[in-house]
Specification:
Elements lengths: L8 E4 L5 H12 L3 E6 L3 H13 L4 E5 L5 H15 L4 E4 L14 H22 L8 E5 L13 H21 L5 E7 L14 H6 L9 H12 L10 E4 L6
Parallel strand pairs: 1-2, 1-4, 2-3, 4-5, 5-6, 6-7
Helix pairs in contact: 1-7, 3-4, 4-5
């Protein structure tokens, strides 16, 4: 089976569940060999590896704490070493720590910045050493970077807003090498962390123009476009795949 990403290698951070898992499966379906990082759910990561192999692609799950820069760099180098190249990086790993500004402790702040801000930078820094022309960097942000509709989102919103600057800076710096960098801001998406039948789901749906949650596969489709040849002239862009949440 051939696809538009046939012969390419993709790394999806935090790829064992939710949006990350959907992205990994979509990229594999488009023809890429796919590696993913995970922190705790080795069982889910192993299941996903088998699903990717079932569609005829190579797969690798690498344990790595995104808060640890050395672990991040080692994960990227391992993927590039085992697969022989690296073409697509999807910065998906993140933490969602919320609460009133006055009650958030330094550990929560440091963890959020380490995983949501520093890790995407370090992953990109390590990945571009292996990328050639046609390389792709896609970061997964959040709709609340543009519209924080509930109290308690200041820390998380701040961390996701930082990805806008990272994306634009990478696009400008790497464009001469034929490498693109883009940002996808999902809206409410039906995952374990934010189920469509959760306690606040009705209110959250009401903020969207479409009146529903996204399926993770819908976010993965946007990432696949940016990762593929049809997205080759898109760089430095932010795509709000949010059901009209920010409209």
């Amino acid at each position: 089976m051939n696809g538009v990403l046939d012969g390419k290698v993709a790394l999806v951070t935090g790829g064992s569940r939710g949006i990350g898992a959907a992205v990994a499966l979509r990229l594999a379906g488009e023809g890429a060999d796919v590696a993913l990082t995970y922190e705790r759910r080795a069982d889910r990561a192993a299941e996903l590896v088998e699903q990717i192999k079932a569609v005829g692609r190579r797969a690798l799950a690498v344990p790595a704490d995104s808060a640890d820069p050395e672990a991040v760099r080692a994960a990227v180098d391992r993927v590039a070493g085992e697969f022989g190249r690296l073409d697509v990086l999807v910065n998906n790993a993140g933490v969602f720590l919320t609460g009133p500004v006055g009650e958030l402790g330094p550990d929560e702040v440091e963890r959020t910045i380490a995983v949501n801000v520093r890790a995407p930078f370090v992953f990109a820094q390590a990945a571009v050493r292996h990328m050639t022309e046609g390389g792709r960097i896609v970061s997964i942000g959040s709709n609340v970077a543009e519209r924080a509709v509930f109290p308690g989102l200041a820390l998380y919103s701040m961390s996701k807003t930082a990805l806008l600057g990272l994306t634009r800076g990478l696009a400008r710096e790497l464009g001469g090498r034929g490498i693109t960098a883009n940002l996808v801001n999902p809206g409410p998406t039906d995952t374990d962390a934010n189920p469509a039948d959760g306690p606040n789901a009705e209110a959250i749906r009401g903020f969207t123009a479409l009146g529903r949650y996204a399926d993770p596969a819908e976010i993965a489709a946007v990432v696949a476009f940016l990762a593929g040849p049809d997205g080759g002239y898109v760089t430095g862009a932010t795509i709000n795949a949010d059901g009209g949440f920010t409209s």
